[in-house]
Amino acid sequence: EMFGQLSSGLEAAWTKLKGEEVLTKENIAEPMRDIRRALLEADVSLPVVRRFVQTVSDQAVGMGVIRGVKPDQQLVKIVHDELVKLMGGEVSELQFSKSGPTVILLAGLQGVGKTTVCAKLACYLKKQGKSCMLIAGDVYRPAAIDQLVILGEQVSVPVYTAGTDVKPADIAKQGLKEAKKNNIDVVIMDTAGRLQIDKGMMDELKDVKKVLNPTEVLLVVDAMTGQEAAALVTTFNVEIGITGAILTKLDGDSRGGAALSVKEVSGKPIKLVGRGERMEDLEPFYPNRMAGRILGMGDVLSFVEKAQEVMRQEDAEDLQKKIMSAKFDFNDFLKQTRAVAKMGSMTRVLGMIPGMGKVSPAQIREAEKSLIIMEAMIEAMTPEEREKPELLAESPERRKRIAKDSGKTEQQVSQLVAQIFQMRVKMKNLMGVMEGGSIPALSD
Ligand code: GDP
């Protein structure tokens, strides 16, 4: 299982917070040690681990309480967001040339999967409607050229070859000419890999790069090599200048160090990942999904996100006071129902928590429809009426006017007025439960 060890290492951190009320400097000390250990065991480089742990601790201590969210859930969310940042945040898309063919130059050590990536990349781009051509530039291994030709046939993409007696820079020049003649959208050049970095390889790459003026120079690295991959990306970037990396063999039992370190160490993003030997097994690198996969807690993450969103939308403290003193009025009602509608109903959020019931889409649509009706009636109220629902309870004339102005029936207005008094009672009870720390179901 990819990242399996890292995932379970991090899990140890959350369990230590079970039963805590709030994140403090003291109670996160041990979980932070777990996180540190898990990252180091995943072969993330030490300076990266140090910075990561520091950032997470600072945030955790400064976070305060989010109603309904437990400290261990909070920490999961913080770690998740920092993992995403560590991996570069957004997806880093391949760039395409606006004039003439896009040229992608691939570099990498021997055995990392570079030749395979050439064909996979062509397969991937063909699906986006782009015509591709491969150039075989590994002049030191005739077998590599044969392999590229075979893979090219497999994905139905032409392969330009010039044997092993021509210099790679010349092959590049001829291949590019051929591609332009055939109106090819994307040219992908394979280059020779060595067992280790040496000057000959770098010089050759520089020559090829000069000739091709590529849009992308991508270093193919093997995920199994851990933080070594990040160091390689740095070296290649300093030597020849690259635009990003492709991480292969992520399907193996890679420990995660490469995926987590490359961007932070080298400043260059991972653009694509290979996760299998089939031609289809190449995909963009999504930091978000990767972090989610490492933590394996998608439900907790979206729950905390929604809760934070609601917190931002209303000043919870203020609302609570109003409810406790039974001053909850139509303005609050509107704010509250809108906030709830926006997050796709409170109940749906609660449904994400294991053990809580789910709400059907039909129920949500129904709730949204009645919200629109209620809004129309509240908008027809005077500011005074909104603040003092009692005025409406006492005066049939006022209710009549609102019905007329909002285009609803008097009965609907009466119902709404009754509802706010019911809600005052309900919310008061609800607050009591929330104070107690558990999450109530709002579905009824
Ligand atoms: P090159 O020397 O860098 O050109 O490496 P190759 O493309 O010849 O690949 C070396 C070996 O790694 C081959 O057996 C590939 O099938 C295998 N390989 C490449 N990419 C992946 C991957 O993403 N996952 C797995 N499991 N194997 C891969």
Q: Can you put this structure into words, describing what you see?
A:
The protein is of the alpha/beta class and 444 residues long. It folds into three domains: 4-90, Four Helix Bundle (Hemerythrin (Met), subunit A), CATH 1.20.120.140; 102-285, 3-Layer(aba) Sandwich (Rossmann fold), CATH 3.40.50; 314-435, 434 Repressor (Amino-terminal Domain), CATH 1.10.260. It is 59% helix and 9% strand. The protein has 20 helices and eight strands. The chain has helices spanning 4-15, 25-41, 46-61, 71-86, 114-127, 142-154, 168-181, 199-212, 227-240, 257-266, 287-295, 298-313, 316-324, 330-342, 346-351, 361-379, 383-387, 389-394, 396-406, 410-435; strands spanning 102-107, 132-137, 159-160, 186-191, 216-222, 244-248, 270-274, 282-284. It has an eight-stranded mixed sheet, sandwiched between helices. Strand 7 and strand 8 (282-284) form a beta hairpin. Helix 4 runs antiparallel to helix 11, helix 5 (114-127) packs parallel to helix 6 (142-154) and helix 7 (168-181) runs parallel beside helix 8 (199-212). The longest helix has 26 residues, at 410-435. Mean pLDDT is 84; it is low at 345-358 and 436-444. The protein binds guanosine-5'-diphosphate. GO terms for molecular function: 7S RNA binding; GTP binding; GTPase activity. Keywords: GTP-binding, Hydrolase, Nucleotide-binding, Ribonucleoprotein, RNA-binding, Signal recognition particle. Its EC number is 3.6.5.4. Residues 383-409 are annotated as: Disordered. Residues 269-282 form the SRP54-type proteins GTP-binding domain.
